[in-house]
Amino acid sequence: MVARKAPQIWGCKVPFKVRFFMWLAFNDRLLTCAYCSIWRPGDPTSSALCGDNLETTQHLFCGCAFAKEVWLNLGSSLGGGWCPSDLDHLWELGRRLSRRNDRSLRSKILQSLVPAVMWVIWIGRNDKIFRGTLVSTEGVWEDAKRNISAWGCLCGGASRVLVERNSILITS
Ligand SMILES: [Zn+2]
């Protein structure tokens, strides 16, 4: 399953660190509390964002109440139900944003949406654990939109990507 996604993950028009992060996430190698507890038994294993449940990769991005709210907000912005049951489902939802074999600028940018949101959730989770800062679901969406806009240059359309309010406006 992961091997099939690898070309898509490495082909995403996002910074290398985000592609590497995605590769780790889909290979279940992110340093979540559950993963770290393998080597450091006794460390907290509960989800940093909801304070409940075992923090696995699946939980962090799909099962967590925080993540669910983020995806719900995203769904209300983009239209359509965004309730990913697991990472594979989440990836498919992202892929469905553009038509098959669509190599347009818009398509490339939309393909960076799921990585952008996952990346910001991960950063927010890390900030909460290591800096004690609180992250809001609205803040995640705002930061993700900023990233998508900034990463638009990787698609060859630096000034043609506008992310405003709750919409991703792509002009070409
Ligand atoms: Zn949680």
From TrEMBL:
InterPro entries, alphabetized: RVT-Znf
Domain Reverse transcriptase zinc-binding: start-end pairs: 6-71
Pfam families in the record: zf-RVT (PF13966)
Top-level taxon of the source organism: Eukaryota
Name this protein carries in UniProt: Reverse transcriptase zinc-binding domain-containing protein
Species of provenance: Acorus calamus
